[in-house]
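[audit] Reproducing an earlier prediction to check determinism. Same input, same settings, fresh worker. If the tokens differ from the archived copy the diff job will pick it up downstream; this log only records the rerun itself.
[audit] input (562 residues):
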Amino acid sequence: MKDFKNAIIECVPNFSEGRNMDIIKQITDEIEKIEGVQLLDVDPGKATNRTVVTFVGNPFSVIEAAFYAIKKASELIDMRNHKGEHPRMGATDVCPLIPVSGITMAEAVDLAKMLAKRVSEELDIPTYLYEYAATADYRRNLADIRSGEYEGFATKILKPEWKPDYGRAHFNERSGATVIGARDFLIAYNINLNTTSTRRANAVAFDIREKGRQKKDEKGKVVKHNNGEVVWEPGLLKAVKAIGWYIEEYGIAQISVNLTNMNITPLHVLFDTACARANARGMRVTGSELVGLVPLQAILEAGKYFLHKQQRSLGVSEDELIKIAVKSLGLDDLTSFDPNRKIIEYRLRDMNAKKLVGMSLTRFAEETASESPAPGGGSIAAYVGTLGAALGTMVANLSSHKKGWDARWEEFSNYAEKGQAFMSELMALVDEDTNAFNKIMIAFGLPKSNDAEKAARAAAIETATIYAIKIPFRTMELAYEAFDLAKKMAEIGNPNSVSDAGVGALCLRTAIKGAYMNVRINSQGLENNAEVKPILEKAAAINGAIDVKEKEVWDIVLGKMK
């Protein structure tokens, strides 16, 4: 399984305790002990005697935190004494993993299985898998697994069809059973209407939600099947649950939506469809609000969608895309929308703060000039490459908005998007080059008092050094690809910005040459290593080819200045 270095998953375990805050605090303390995890929300309910906890972070850190929270719950919660309004079957009733970014659902399923196996083996708690992790269709739905609840599980667990996915088919009287799985991210979202009528809000909700509305005949009577079940007319959007309600605090009616899969129905499609249906019914959508957190992807996709409708370049900064999405969706209609609090990835930025790229230009220069050996040439090469890609992107964006070139906006928008992707990855390599250097220093600091330790140290140094070769090589690859963008913008872009494209190309050439020096110096003594040798060959080829390409750009730029 991959290392999930930049991946994020959300975990929302439900614990069967909602009244004793000391117990709840002890459970959440276990979560907060784990590095790489951030606790986002703790929502206890007295009537349900249940607490819903939300935390996010690196996938492996999240399943580690989930395990220790489940373990602590098994120590503190005795299900033999539990009473509450909400259906439940165990001290930790359910524990879903939700992919947020950098991880697929299939990978989340593998993690759910790892967690379930560990819970059953180390805590002797029978464990079931549900949703995408389910081992059979009849086990996919949580309600079906939990049917009979804690009180009925002593008998249910003995039935062959309800044998746990992990653990003994033996009822754990104290802890009950636990359901672990992987599911889609749920976005809780309200759409604001210029009406106070709940009935009219419901009409729009029934138009858009997947379930739709009950079918009625010409006389207004509900139509039923032969078996007596109601016939439903499906709504317009899949993965959407919705209902209308009146919010006294704001004095308006809203459509309250649970978007259960943003990959099936994106947030912006939901919003625009609601706008169309509201207009058809004589109402207007005035804005919307997000309840809880939203993945960055949903907001960026919305920003690009609305820019595309305006025939404007999509290759703009992340901040600009967010600004467009917030204004277009009316997310600041009722209250201000703070991306740093509402977007999951931004909530994690402090935890995963990048040392160099977060600095001011002055501070970065001062840090480079200090007596510390890092950041060094590798980080600077990556940053110069970032600036080169940024200039190529700038020319693409200027070209997409050039007067008289309206028919070509999408052509240049595509180039600008590619440029943004180059910028993003090269920027990440600024810090990663320094991280690679630090890995080597850590390896050199390993003990070497005996032959076994010496061998382990030597192996660690070689592994870290090879990694430190790969980082500047990746800088070379990206800068070489981005060079073609700068060259293309010099050729076909806004002629008033041809010098900008030329400077961008020179920055990218510098990035390649500088990164090549780092590849070479880090490779000393490893030239014949099976992993390093082909890297050196490819790096030398790029280094040679860029000299030819540089001359081509010079000719293009100077030719347009005559």
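[audit] rerun output stored. Observation attached for the diff report: The domain at 8-182 is CATH 3.30.990.10 (Formiminotransferase-cyclodeaminase; Chain B, domain 1).
[audit] end
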